[in-house]
From TrEMBL:
GO terms for molecular function: hydrolase activity. Coiled coil: none annotated. The keyword Glycoprotein does not apply. Keywords: Hydrolase, Signal. Residues 1-32 form the signal peptide. This is Alpha/beta hydrolase. Residues 43-262 form the AB hydrolase-1 domain.
Amino acid sequence: MHTLTHRVTARITALLAVLVAVAGLGTANAVADRPTGGQKPTIVLVHGAFADGASWNPVIERLQRRGFTAVAVANPLRGVRSDADALDARLAGIDGPVVLVGHSYGGAVITNVKARSPKVKALVYVAAFAPAEGEAAGQLAAKYPGSTLGGTLAPVPLPDGSTDLYIKPSLFRQQFAADVPARQAALMASTQRPIRDAALDEASGTPAWTSIPSWFLLAGADRNIPLQAQGFMADRAGSRATVTVEGASHAVAVSRPDTVVKLIVRAAD
């Protein structure tokens, strides 16, 4: 009796093992049969000077509601080449396609991205610099009249002889975020991150927009980068679509996030 029971138990164990294996094969086949195309790109957002990653929060919230993964990169704001290197390192850790979005000086950084692989599908410039080779952000800001940034800056000398630049808190709203509620603009002024002066004078390398499609959002009442300069850069880059937001300040991603998101989604399709 004991032997018979042992044999029955052994057969049941073997049968269960077969069933588990078949079930596992079915699961594997089901996974293999799932379509791999149509993956939504990760939206990588690069802030500019006098801001931080939190400046993208309204945009990120809306992208997440649409099912996108969004990553706000901590831009060092030390120099175009070194900041682009930091961005490249961050991109290396992201799987699948990417849409790069740059605001202000962040546009110069995405312009210098070295990731020429198919990973980067699109570039989106939001009130941003899109320099050609040899151009600097400061040079482009002064190309056309209208920028009032220089008179609002508060320099802080650094030990290496260079200078960090902040916008004076008392002038921050009128200069950077005129269409943002006063309380919110005050918080932005208090949490702004400085840019090293040399970064604004550093010449750009070969621009990514010559080989990667670009989309541009222009801020109509921008006091950092004149509207005419933004339009010039968009035309030169061969922008697939250019949207002008009338009355928008330089902080257009904070004040008009819905419009910014719509353009990003168009670039991601």
